[in-house]
Amino acid sequence: MAYDLEKCNETLLEFENLIINGEKKDWEGVLRTGVDLGTANIVLAVVDDTNLPIAGATFPSTVVRDGIVVDYIGAVQAVTRLKGQLEELLGETLDAGACAIPPGILSGNVKAIGNVVESAGFRLTEIVDEPTAAAAVLGISDGAVVDVGGGTTGISILKDGKVIYTSDEPTGGTHMTLVLAGFYGIPTEEAEKMKRDSAQEENVFPVVKPVVEKMAAIVKRSLEEYPVDTIYVVGGACCFTQFESVFEKYIGIPVVKPAAPLLVTPLGIAMNCTK
Description:
The chain has nine helices and twelve strands. The protein is an alpha/beta fold. It is globular and about 45 Å long.
C-alpha cells in the first residue's frame, strides 16, 4: 500500500477544519464514530461509509493516564457531552462506536475503556490498537508508527499490514510540560498552555528538545531488532515544527509527520468502526 502524503494531509486538514468551525459534511450511508480517550484530549471522529470525515469534536481532559482510565465518571460525562454535541449538529443519533488502546495495555484497562464508550450511549463495535488505527489514515502497510501521546511514546512496527512488534514507554507530552515548568519556574498549568501555543515555539522547543531526543532514543532502541525504511510520527506531542527533524537526525531514518498529527488516531478509530 503506497503512502500518499498529499491525500492523507488533505483528509486530516479537512477533519481539523470541521472541528474548529463546528461544521458537518453531507454523508453517504451509515455514520460511525471513533472515540479517542487520550491523556491530554478526548477526540470524537465521525465518518461515513466512504471513510470520509463528516464531523468531529474535542475536549481537553485528564481522565486517562498512560492508557488507564483514572476518572471513570469524568470520562463518561465528557464522551456523553461530545456525543450529544455532535448528534445535535448532525441531527442524527450516533449508534456504532469504536475505541482504541495503546500498545501493551492490560486486559482490565481495555475493558474499562470499552465500558466508557458503552456508558456514553454507544454500541461498542470495535476495540482497535492505536497503531492499526493510525495506519488506516496514513494508508501504510509497512514501517514504524510512533504515537507520541501525553503520557507515553508508543512504537508499533508494521509489516505487510500486520503489527509485528509493539512497545510503549513512559515519556510523552506531560514530561515536556514538567521540564518546561521547571525551567521557567512556572506552574504546570501555565507550562501546558505555553507548550500548546505555537507562537511560543521558539521559547519552548529548545527547552523540551532533550525530551524529544529521549523519545527518539526509545524508538531507535526498538528499531535495532526491527529495522524499517520509514518512521511515521503521530500524536499531539509531536506538533512542534522541528520535531521530525530532531528524530531524523538522531535515528538516521526518514521521518514523516502528517498534518494535524493529533487527529490521525481518532480518525483511524472511526475508520475501523464496524456497523
